[in-house]
Amino acid sequence: MRPPVYVPPSRQRPPGFEEIVESTLCPYAQTAVVRVLPPLGDEPIDTYFRRIAPEIRRRVSSAEADGTDAVLTELPVERVGSRPQELAPVLGAWIREIADEGSECLPDTVPARWRLKVAGSDVFVAVFTPDFGRRHARYTPDTRHVYVMLQPDSSFHRRLPEDSGRVRRSIRRRFARAGRDYDTTCPEAERFLPPCGGEEPTAWWEYSMKEVYR
After folding, report:
1. DSSP helix/strand/coil, 199
2. Which of 31 and 53 is assigned the larger pLDDT?
3. Residue 194 to residue 183: CA distance in whole angstroms
4. CA-based, 20 to 30 A from 110: which of 3, 47, 95, 189?
């Protein structure tokens, strides 16, 4: 088997993601350092995930030193869909490629204190899709793409002051006043890919790689 090909990240954020940055109520988004990976080509999705996984892990491992706030994967809707139910197996496959051993495995009942680990670091994942609608905190106006954003914990520690709880509450209030409030009480794994409206969360960890061949 050939070793994974090195994939240099691009420097410019995709136009669709730029719209998310411009419309978000998070005060840190405009100045965030986002490393954008090359988009999916004609290859199978699982091959693409294997190709970019080493670069994602490398970026996470060096995030504290080089100031990386997020690593962004752009996926075409025509290949992966846009509904949470369609994106769940895709997200599960992506996480299994990049996660530290054992970190990606979850039981049916998700532990409240579970964290995803990549390259030895705790990370958070946020999926943005046009299907969420304008009142959703994870909405993107780009109808052709969905975005999977990985944030190393070092970004939160660097960006937020010592009284980070107060800042986080302030940010959540901004979203709530705009009618875009989000749930922070559910397990973190469910917050990676939140549901639309009153739907139940989609369990991305229950899917196998074979369910994303497209």
Report:
1. coil
2. 53
3. 9
4. 47
**3-class secondary-structure state, position 165:** helix
State the pTM of this model.
0.80
Report which residue type is found at 133: G
Q: What is the pLDDT of residues 95-142, one digit of tens each?
A: 999 999 877 666 666 777 788 999 999 999 999 999 988 877 788 889
User: Are the CB atoms for 153 and 122 separated by under 8 Å?
Assistant: yes
Of 15-24, 44-53, 185-194, give the range with the top mean pLDDT: 44-53
Beta bridge partners of 71: 35, 150
Residue 36: beta bridge partners?
10, 72
Q: According to the model, what pLDDT value does residue 192 have? A: 92
Question: Across the beta sheet with 34-36, what order do the strands follow?
Answer: 34-36, 70-76, 145-152, 121-128, 116-118
Mean pLDDT of the chain: 78
Provide the residue type at 195 as one letter: P
**Crossing angle, helix 84-98 and helix 45-61, to 10 degrees?**
60
From the list 8, 151, 136, 15, the residue with the least C-alpha distance to 74 is 15
Query: Helical H runs in 62-180?
Result: 63-66, 77-80, 84-98, 153-159, 164-177
117-146: b or e for each residue (b if 16 or more CB lie within 10 Å)?
bbbebbbbbbbbbbbbeeebbbbbebeebb
> Are 131 and 83 a contacting pair, CB within 8 Å?
yes
